[in-house]
Amino acid sequence: MDTSTSADETVIAEGRERIDSLDDRIIELIRERMTVSERIQRARVASGGRRIHLSREMEILRRYREGLGRPGTQLAMTLLELCRGRAGDAPRT
To answer: Which of 2, 28, 31, 32 is the most exposed place for a label (fewest CB within 10 A)?
Structure first.
């Protein structure tokens, strides 16, 4: 086997391992964000407000778009969908 091929395979394997580790951290952070968002929603509703605050969501969409470009908007939409939950859903634990 060619030495460069072996080195390339090592780079690929190490890179994939690093991506898996990053993905685990991202998932953990998203779950944490979902919990925080749920607390905010419950407090807002308890104080007579709406569960979802649309102007805040627009700020989040803008932030992701500015940070990641157009695909950032799609990512933010998915994140917001995950964090919105549904009215009457059981609390996440």
So the answer is: 2
CA 87 to chain centre: 20
pLDDT recorded at residue 93 = 40
Q: How many CB atoms lie within 10 A of CB 42?
A: 13
Task: Give the model confidence (pLDDT) of 52-90 as tens digits.
Answer: 999 999 999 999 999 999 999 999 999 999 999 754 454
The token duo for 27 is 């998932």
- Calpha distance 38→1 (Å, rounded): 54
**Cβ 37 vs Cβ 83: under 8 Å:** yes
